[in-house]
Amino acid sequence: MPKVSSYSRFIFDPFYMLNFLYFTSYLGLRFTNPVYYNSPDISLSEFTTYSSWFMISFVKYFSSETIDEWLVSSSNFGKLVVLVVSFSVDLYYGFFYLFVSAGMLLLNPKQTLSNDSSNIVYLTKGNLDEFLKNKEVLLCLYATWSKESVNFTPVFAQLSNATRSVIFAKIDVGRWPDIADRFKIETKNLPTLVLLKNGIEQKRIFRSPNTSFANEKEIFKHFNINK
């Protein structure tokens, strides 16, 4: 069962705000537009589709480690449900929500900007401590809604390909804010790089407000990493 560290952040997190507007706009359209929906009652096919969504979300709730993980997976599957139902009603609505879903997907850099050719390990709250044991890891703490984190994504991928002397890893503190609290990281300092040996912090470097983040040369020099 997922753990919740703070409910208030869900109100201000762009990911959750966009998904909330996405689903409420569909529900508003579904029950107020008599042109494309002949009846305000839910059809059997709609009921079956919605039921599948609720059942899968229910199962995922007990298998997720955090409320963020559960909400993200449920939201992604929910968008698929909306697409299926929209296309079954009218192609115009279907394509509208398809474009909206594509735009929302582009706002999630963890899914869209990951580089398969990079040597980066993506961590979660559940496996972070175990992974850090007996290793030297350069950990990037970022958030998917942070513009600076998005801009730094290809740079960190290049760094991971430039050396094998340290392991490169990332964790999304937007989904696991208690990790940000643990490392004492503020939103204005994202992204932050932390060098850890056997789970113990050695050095860190973070973005200062209104400034660009360090480049590849500066990062290697700061952490004394050999190419």
UniProtKB/TrEMBL annotation:
Domain of life from the UniProt record: Eukaryota
Residue ranges constituting the Thioredoxin domain according to the UniProt record: 120-204
The keyword Transmembrane helix appears for this protein: yes
Xref: SUPFAM superfamilies: Thioredoxin-like (SSF52833)
Keywords: Membrane, Transmembrane, Transmembrane helix
Entries under Pfam families matching the protein: Thioredoxin
Transmembrane intervals: 12-29, 80-107
Protein name per UniProt: Thioredoxin-related transmembrane protein
Source organism per UniProt: Acrasis kona
